[in-house]
Design brief:
Elements (H helix, E strand, L loop, with lengths): L7 E3 L6 E3 H19 L6 H12 L4 E4 L6 H10 L1 E2 L2 E5 L6 H5 E6 L4 E6 L6 E5 L6 H4 L3 H6 L1 E4 L2 E4 L5 E6 L12 H6 L2 E3 L6 H11 L12 E2 H12 L5 H15 L4 E3 L3 H17 L7 H12 L4 E2 L1 H5 L4 H11 L9
Amino acid sequence: MSTHGIGTARDASTGTAQTGADLDTVIRVTSLVRQNIERVITGKPDVVSAALTVLLAEGHLLIEDVPGVGKTQLSKALARSIDCTVARIQFTPDLLPSDVTGVSVFNQDTRQFEFRPGGVFANVVVGDEINRASPKTQSALLECMEERQVTVDNTTYHLDQPFMVIATQNPIEMEGTYALPEAQRDRFMARVSVGYPVESAEIAMLEGHTTRNPLDDLEPVTDAGELRKLIDIVGRVHVAPAVQRYAVALSTATRNSGDLHLGASPRATLHLVRAAKAVAAMQGRDFVLPDDIHGIAQPVLAHRLLPNVEATMSGHSTLSILAGIIDSVPVPASGRA
């Protein structure tokens, strides 16, 4: 494989050419989106990078944190940076599955049933406080997140591409929340926490957010068509067999851990590799390094794991268990071959 800016790379699995200009486009567009988001969310470069990674890897993003730290602002800023269709669903205890997917309504004039699309019929779906809805309503997202389609009354409706769900949730110990089902969590490529801002960023927020909402000034810096091209470029990034084996080894180690009741699924391994390809492309590389896998493992894997009773009673958190697992798996020397 060639490095960024030198000749043309060719993916061994697809045979399609990838040029330095392609990777330059990825860097240019993601930089513009990053600048847009950071006008709203300051001092959180790692969180913004994770959101961009999930966007380019065709995944879905779960933002979990306490109220008031900017979860919804982050999701809205990302959505407004792309000139595409955006829908916002406020998840509440009385929200129905049909409010999410859509419903067939009988038209008295035509004497036929007509389908009225729900909130998921958009390129970017912002699900606010997803764990305040009942598990039944949360499950309405399962099909669309995995298969990019919705089935209502035995009729399947395909969703436009790209399609991304950006969901926010409060920690489950907060009042009025339901824990997301395991199948729901597994469909999110990554989970991030915004966290409290540093003092300087919070002071800057007071100066810039008290008179005007910065979201009002955001203009799109890319569109759905260009985003589809970027996703295609990311998909052609090369992953060497040694790097693939490393990703599988990480997932396998979680399944064999004595501290975990539920380890990472094969879907998690796939998400790990796809996210690493996006990380490599944003750094101008047409191949994945083992460090790309290592760096993205925590946000991609942590929310899927369940510690067992013994680990919980011993005070071991999921993050600490995962950190130990990641450190225990040997990292390959190179990802070029």
